[in-house]
Specification:
membrane; alpha+beta; 3 strands; 2 helices; transmembrane
């Protein structure tokens, strides 16, 4: 049986293909890591804004209850400033204080709201 032999074609060299794949995977890994780090930083900053809102609401509630002197919203604004935030809204209903704060972070505007009052209040 005579086998027909075909002429062998020279394929383009695959030398360096593994390097290209490794560099691509490394680039993707760096990109994903950067996005994940930014997301974690945003979450941490948002938690900081929520802490500022909580402390501002507690300061206002302490003033409403008579534990602190002054005006509730002024004390709330002072507490928010200590946490690098600004009060955007402040209200009280009997002994319950509601405060909203904002902080600009990395070209993002982060906001949070908190309520504080005596134990057992709705």
């Amino acid at each position: 049986m005579n086998a027909v032999t075909r002429p062998r074609r020279e394929l383009a060299s695959e030398s360096g293909a593994g390097t290209v794949l490794a560099v691509s995977l490394l680039g993707a890994l760096v990109l994903v890591t950067g996005v994940a780090l930014f997301a974690v930083a945003v979450l941490a900053a948002q938690q900081g804004v929520q802490n500022a809102a909580d402390s501002a609401a507690l300061a206002a509630a302490d003033t409403l209850s008579g534990r602190s002197v002054g005006y509730p919203c002024e004390n709330a604004a002072r507490a928010a400033r200590l946490n690098d935030a600004s009060v955007t809204a402040c209200s009280s209903d009997n002994l319950i204080a509601t405060v909203a704060v904002v902080r600009d972070w990395a070209s993002l505007r982060l906001t949070a709201e908190a309520r504080a009052g005596p134990p057992g209040s709705p």
